[in-house]
Design brief:
The protein has 470 residues and is of the alpha/beta class. 31% of the residues lie in helices and 20% in strands. It has two domains: 10-220 and 366-465, Rossmann fold (3-Layer(aba) Sandwich), CATH 3.40.50.1820; 221-328, no CATH class. It is globular and about 60 Å long.
C-alpha cells in the first residue's frame, strides 16, 4: 500500500526561513563515539534549538533504509524528565550498551540489529528543559509544565524542520512513551492545527500522518484506577480484597474521602500486597534507582537487609540481576567528558547528566488528554497505541478503558499477532472517518515495552509504519 505525500510550499517556506534564520541553535554531525567500535554506521546529528529561553538538545538519527522516502519521527521519552538518549539506547536506536561483558570503566557500545531507525528517521528530543542536556539561559526558564512542554516541543519541531528542509516532504509522526502520553497528543494537535491555518505558513504541509504512544499516561484517574483492576487480574491481590475495594470505594481508588474508613483500610491492605512488586515489570526483581555516583568497588550492605533498596554491581548471580544496573550504564557513559565533547555538548551547561531527572521544576497541569484524542479522532490520522502486558506503571487496563471511551468502530477484533510462529501479543483495530487506531499488546513486556521486547516491538513498528497488518 502506497504512502501519501505532498509537495512543499516553497513560497511559504522561503518567507519563514527569513524570519527564523539565526534563532535555530546549533547542529553537528557525529561520526565517532567513545566506546563504539570504529566509525558510526549511521548518520547521527546532535545539536540545540533555541525555544523561548531554553536550549533544547536533540539526537537525530537518519533512516538507514531510504531516508528520502522513509517517515520522520519526533520522539519524546517520558518521566517527565527522562532523557531521549534512554529511548535511543534502550528502546529504538541502532546501538546498545555491551552490558554482558562490562568489567568497569567507560561502558562500551555495540551495534543493535532491531533498530526502528532502519525504516524511519527519528529526532530524539531532550524535553522538557532540565532533561538530559537541555538547559535554560534564565532562572525563570527552568520552570516547566505539561502545557509548556508540549508547546516547546512543537516550537522545537517547527524550527528544526525549517533548518532541515530536505525532510519537509516526508511523512511526519509524533511519538513517545510513558508520561509523554500526556505530551504527544498535544504536540500532534499543535501540528494539525497549523495545517488548518494557512497564515501560519503550512510548514508541515499535509505530510502529518499520525502519532505513536507506548505505555501512555493519559488520564490520572483512569490510569490510577486501572492499577487495582490489573493487580487483581495478575493475582497480586485476592478476590476478597478486590471485591471489598470495589464495594467500599465504589470502584474509584483515587482522591478517596478519608472518612470512608472501609475504603481506606482496604486500599492500605492492597498497598501492602503490591508495595514490593516491581511496577515496571511485575515479573522482575524490585531494585533501587540507579545512581551515577555508584561505585562498584565499594562495600555495600547485604541484599538480605533491604532487598527493595539494593542495586547489584555487574551481575554475577543471574537470579539477583536488576535492570537498574543497565540504566546506570547511561549515567556513567553520558557524564564522561570525552563523550560530551563527541556529542558537542556545551561545556558547563549541565553539571550532571541523569537518565531521569527527578528534580525538575515541573507542574502537571493537564490531568487528562482523552479529550485531545477525541478531537484528533475526527481527522484522518494513523495511530498506534502499544503497551506491555506486565506493566503496573500504566496498566493496559486503563489504556483499553480510554480507547473504548472514544466510541470508535471496531474493524478488526481482538486477535493474537505472531513472530516466528509464536504469539507476540494481541491487537485490535478501530476506525472512524479515516481515523485509524491500532491497539497492540506485547506479551511479557513491562514499562516501556521496547526496553523488554526490542525485537518484538521492532517487528510491530515495521509492520505498522508500512501499513501491513500487525
Amino acid at each position: 500500500m502506497g504512502k501519501f505525500r505532498c509537495s512543499v510550499h516553497w513560497k511559504c517556506l522561503c518567507g519563514l526561513l527569513l524570519v527564523f534564520v539565526g534563532i535555530v541553535g546549533s547542529q553537528s554531525i557525529v561520526e565517532c563515539l567513545p566506546g563504539y567500535p570504529g566509525k558510526l554506521p549511521f548518520k547521527l546529528e546532535t545539536g540545540y534549538v533555541t525555544v523561548d529561553n531554553s536550549e533544547l538538545f536533540y539526537y537525530f538519527i537518519e533512516s538507514s533504509g531510504n531516508p528520502k522516502e522513509d517517515p520522520i519521527f519526533l520522539w519524546l521519552t517520558g518521566g517527565p524528565g527522562c532523557s531521549s538518549f534512554s529511548g535511543l539506547v534502550y528502546e529504538l536506536g541502532p546501538m546498545e550498551f555491551d552490558i554482558e561483558n562490562y568489567v568497569g570503566g567507560l561502558p562500551k557500545l555495540q551495534p543493535y540489529e532491531y533498530a526502528w531507525t532502519k525504516t524511519a528517521s527519528i529526532i530524539f528530543l531532550d524535553s522538557p528543559v532540565g532533561t538530559g542536556f537541555s538547559y535554560s539561559t534564565t532562572a525563570e526558564g527552568w520552570y516547566s509544565s505539561d502545557s509548556k512542554s508540549a508547546s516547546q516541543a512543537y516550537q522545537f519541531l517547527r524550527k528544526w524542520m525549517i533548518a532541515h528542509p530536505q525532510y519537509l516532504a516526508l511523512q511526519l509522526f509524533i511519538g513517545g512513551d510513558s508520561y509523554s502520553g500526556i505530551i504527544v497528543p498535544q504536540v500532534t494537535k499543535y501540528v494539525v492545527d497549523e495545517i488548518s491555518f494557512p497564515f501560519l505558513g503550512q510548514i508541515f504541509c499535509r505530510t502529518t500522518q499520525g502519532y505513536l504512544i507506548g505505555s501512555p499516561a493519559t488520564d490520572s484517574v483512569i490510569d490510577e484506577n486501572s492499577k487495582i483492576v490489573f493487580s487483581h487480574r495478575m493475582a497480586l491481590i485476592s478476590d476478597e480484597l478486590y471485591e471489598a475495594a470495589k464495594t467500599s470505594c465504589n470502584e474509584t481508588y483515587v482522591n478517596v474521602d478519608p472518612s470512608n474508613t472501609k475504603c481506606t483500610a482496604t486500599l492500605a491492605a492492597i498497598k501492602k500486597c503490591i508495595q514490593d512488586i516491581n511496577t515496571k515489570d511485575i515479573l522482575e526483581p524490585k531494585c533501587a534507582s540507579a545512581s551515577p555516583m555508584y561505585n562498584p568497588n565499594e562495600n555495600h550492605r547485604s541484599v538480605l537487609e533491604k532487598p527493595a533498596e539494593f542495586i547489584l554491581s555487574p551481575p554475577r548471580i543471574p537470579g539477583l540481576w536488576c535492570r537498574n544496573f543497565n540504566y546506570a550504564m547511561s549515567d556513567w557513559w553520558s557524564n564522561d567528558i570525552q563523550v560530551q565533547k563527541a556529542l558537542n555538548v556545551r561545556p558547563g551547561t549541565v553539571l550532571q547528566w541523569q537518565r531521569c531527572n527527578n528534580s525538575l521544576a515541573y507542574t502537571k497541569d493537564i490531568p487528562s488528554v482523552v479529550y485531545v484524542h477525541k478531537e484528533l479522532s475526527t481527522l484522518g490520522l494513523e495511530v498506534l497505541v502499544e503497551c506491555g502486558d506486565r506493566d503496573l506503571v500504566v496498566p493496559y487496563v486503563g489504556t483499553v478503558n480510554w480507547i473504548t471511551s472514544l466510541n470508535l468502530t471496531v474493524v478488526n477484533d481482538w486477535r493474537p499477532w505472531f513472530i516466528d510462529g509464536q504469539v507476540a501479543g494481541y491487537t485490535k483495530k478501530y476506525s472512524e472517518h479515516g481515523f485509524c487506531l491500532t491497539y497492540t499488546t506485547i506479551k511479557g513486556a513491562g514499562h516501556t515495552a521496547p526496553e523488554y521486547k526490542r525485537r518484538e516491538c521492532y517487528e510491530m513498528f515495521g509492520r505498522w509504519i508500512h501499513y501491513y497488518p500487525i
